[in-house]
Automatic annotation (TrEMBL):
Purpose of the protein: Catalyzes the deamination of adenosine to inosine at the wobble position 34 of tRNA(Arg2).
Stated family: Belongs to the cytidine and deoxycytidylate deaminase family. ADAT2 subfamily.
Gene designation per UniProt: tadA
PROSITE patterns, sorted: CYT_DCMP_DEAMINASES_1, CYT_DCMP_DEAMINASES_2
Gene Ontology MF terms in the entry: tRNA-specific adenosine-34 deaminase activity; zinc ion binding
Enzyme class: hydrolase
Listed CDD domains: nucleoside_deaminase (cd01285)
This protein's UniProt keywords: Hydrolase, Metal-binding, tRNA processing, Zinc
Organism in which the protein naturally occurs: Paracoccus sediminis
Subunit structure: Homodimer.
Catalytic activity: adenosine(34) in tRNA + H2O + H(+) = inosine(34) in tRNA + NH4(+)
Listed EC numbers: 3.5.4.33
Chain ranges of the CMP/dCMP-type deaminase domain: 2-112
Name of the protein: tRNA-specific adenosine deaminase
Residue positions of the active site: E56
Length: 150
């Protein structure tokens, strides 16, 4: 059994960097089975003019590229906010082993709210899900970001 290390601090740093770029502050980190950080990313939907450029998607793409594989078995994904349905589907398709997310997202989330993607019988791979890690700083970042935009 390997020692447990939280990667939420790195995910939060990516979220902060996203906010500095004027993007919705969400950050994600993919961790390889050996504990190495395989990829880290923040939202870039505005910069890339791409509605799919969520932090989770960008991190999964980079980790898959590095692994030379469309699947990431045994990898963990850390993200500051509950993934939306699109990202939850990508997490399932990538065969991510464990999902750690920070703040819950009753409005856009698709894991424990709304579509509840992993609970569908059509969902062939369900990661272990752990929520609430780093939820407070994640929520504070999001609230600060949207407050400043009004
Ligand atoms: Zn998403």
């Amino acid at each position: 059994m390997s020692r447990f290390t939280s990667h939420m601090a790195l995910a939060l740093a990516e979220a902060r960097a996203a906010a500095d770029r004027g993007e919705v502050p969400v950050g994600a980190v993919v961790v390889a089975p050996d504990g190495r950080v395989a990829a880290a990313a923040g939202n870039r939907t505005r910069e890339l003019s791409d509605p799919t450029a969520h932090a989770e998607i960008l991190a999964i793409r980079a980790a898959c590229r590095a692994a030379g594989s469309e699947r990431l078995p045994g990898h963990d994904l850390w993200v500051t906010l509950e993934p939306c349905p699109m990202c939850a589907s990508a997490i399932s398709a990538a065969r991510i082993g464990r999902l750690y997310y920070g703040a819950s997202d009753p409005r856009m989330g698709g894991v424990d709210h709304g579509a509840r993607v992993f609970d569908h019988p059509q969902c062939h791979h369900r990661p272990q899900v752990y929520d609430g890690l780093g939820a407070d700083p994640s929520r504070a970042l999001l609230q600060g970001f949207f407050r400043n935009r009004r």
